Amino acid sequence: xxxxxxxxxxxxxxxxxxxxxxxxxxxxxxxxxxxxxxxxxxxxxxxxxxxxxxxxxxxxxxxxxxxxxxxxxxxxxxxxxxxxxxxxxxxxxxxxxxxxxxxxxxxxxxxxxxxx
Length: 116
Description:
By secondary structure, the protein is an all-alpha fold. The chain is about 85% helix and about 0% strand. α2 (about 35-50) runs antiparallel to α3 (about 60-85) and α3 (about 60-85) runs antiparallel to α4.
């Protein structure tokens, strides 16, 4: 499996976790503001990675991956905020944050290789 496929799969699974977290936050914690921000950024990562694979040029591919990287950074922020405001536990935060940071590392590596 190529690195692109790994990235697509990991970002899709991350998006699934984000959707489930959004449902939990809305239903159990009655929190909608931060969770809406997180669902937008967290699901956008995979959408941009998927779109990058169909880029019309190398520059288009790199541009879409940069957008995915920015969305990853934004998702990281919202996850940390949810933990600090105690909407999610530290263990829940650490688990989903690790997935986010892994995607971030892969994106950075892929961008470096693509630019080389």
